[in-house]
Write a structure and sequence with these properties.
By secondary structure, this protein is α/β, with parallel strands linked by helices. The chain is built from eight helices and twelve strands. The C terminus is likely disordered.
C-alpha cells in the first residue's frame, strides 16, 4: 500500500519522538476552543485526500466538547473512512500505543486492521504511576483504595492502571505485576523525587531499556496529583508488534466491509457477528504473550 493510513491524536504530547527514520508523525485534532469547525473540517478533508483513511486515537478522559467535535467531523464529512478509537489508558500509555500504531501504519496492513490493532495492543501496554497520594485517584477500583485511607501521610503508592488495576504501598513487600515479555520502559517525571521506578520497578519487570520523556499535560489530572512519576512498559520491537497483529485472524465487518481483527470494527464499531463455526484466534487477544510469536 503506497500511502500509509493517517494516525491522528487530540494532544501534541501524545506524539512521542520516532524510534527510527521511517516512523511517521501523527496529525493533531485540535479542541473546538482552539480551532473553528470549518478549519477542522478542511484539515480532516486534506488528511482523507492524502491518506485515504484516518485513525483518530483519543483518551476516554477527553473533555466532552472535544469528543463531540471528533464525532461532528465524521458526521459532517459523512465519512466512513474516519475511525474514532477511544482508549481507556493513562496518557503515557496512550502515547506508547500511538507510536506503535504510527509504526504499523507504514506496514502492509489495511486501515481496518490498523484501527482494530489499537484494542489488541493495549493489552500489552503496562501503564501506571508512582504517586504521593491516592486521595483523588478515581481511575482504579474503589476496593483497592478503601484500605489505603488508613495508610500514613507521607506514604508513596505504586499504581498500575492497565492492563489490570493494582495498588501497592512503596516500602512494603508488594510489587506491581509486570509483563511476562520483553519491554522498554517509558518514564515521565512529575513533581515527585524518587528513583523507585528506575531502580526497583524496571529491574523487577526485567525491562530491556528505560527512556525518559516529558510528562503529558493531562497526566496530573488523570492520576489526581501532580506529585507523581508516570511510567509505561511497551513492546519496543516493531517486528514483534507486526507478528502479533498478523497472527490474529482477520474478518470482514458485515456492516461497513472494513477488515478487522478482534471482536469489533475500528471504523463503525459494529461487533463481529460470530458464525456458529467460527474458530477464535489463539489466545492473543486475552492472555497470549508475544513470546509465542517469534521473539
Amino acid at each position: 500500500m503506497s500511502v500509509p493510513t493517517a494516525i491522528a491524536v487530540t494532544s501534541a504530547d501524545l506524539v512521542l519522538p520516532p524510534t527510527d527514520q521511517q516512523t511517521p508523525t501523527a496529525a493533531l485534532l485540535q479542541p473546538p476552543d482552539v480551532q473553528p469547525l470549518d478549519a477542522a473540517l478542511a484539515d480532516m478533508q486534506v488528511l482523507l485526500e492524502q491518506h485515504g483513511y484516518v485513525v483518530a486515537l483519543y483518551p476516554a478522559s477527553l473533555p466532552a466538547a472535544h469528543e463531540r467535535r471528533l464525532h461532528t467531523l465524521r458526521s459532517v464529512l459523512e465519512s466512513d473512512r474516519i475511525a474514532l478509537m477511544k482508549l481507556d489508558l493513562p496518557p503515557l500509555g496512550i502515547a506508547a500505543l500511538v507510536r506503535q500504531l504510527r509504526q504499523l501504519s507504514i506496514c502492509d496492513f489495511s486501515a481496518g486492521v490498523v484501527a482494530s490493532a489499537a484494542r489488541l495492543l493495549s493489552h500489552y501496554v503496562y501503564a501506571g504511576a508512582l504517586l504521593n497520594s491516592v486521595a483523588r485517584l478515581d481511575r482504579v477500583p474503589v476496593g483497592l483504595k478503601s484500605h489505603a485511607k488508613s495508610w500514613v501521610p507521607g506514604s508513596q503508592f505504586g499504581v498500575l492502571a492497565n492492563p489490570s488495576a493494582q495498588l501497592i504501598k512503596i516500602g512494603g513487600d508488594g510489587l506491581l505485576a509486570g509483563p511476562e515479555f520483553g519491554t522498554h520502559l517509558l518514564v515521565a517525571q512529575g513533581q515527585l523525587q524518587s528513583d523507585w521506578v528506575t531502580t526497583t520497578l524496571a529491574p523487577a519487570w526485567r525491562t530491556q531499556a528505560v527512556h525518559e520523556t516529558a510528562l503529558p499535560a493531562d497526566s496530573a489530572r488523570w492520576w489526581g496529583t501532580a506529585k507523581m512519576i508516570e511510567f509505561a512498559a511497551y513492546l519496543p520491537d516493531i517486528s514483534i508488534v507486526y507478528q502479533l497483529v498478523a497472527s490474529v485472524r482477520r474478518e470482514m465487518c458485515s456492516w461497513c466491509g472494513m477488515e478487522l481483527i478482534g471482536d469489533r470494527c475500528g471504523f463503525c464499531s459494529a461487533p463481529l457477528a460470530p458464525p456458529e463455526n467460527q474458530t477464535h484466534a489463539p489466545g492473543v487477544l486475552n492472555h497470549g504473550t508475544p513470546m509465542h510469536h517469534g521473539s
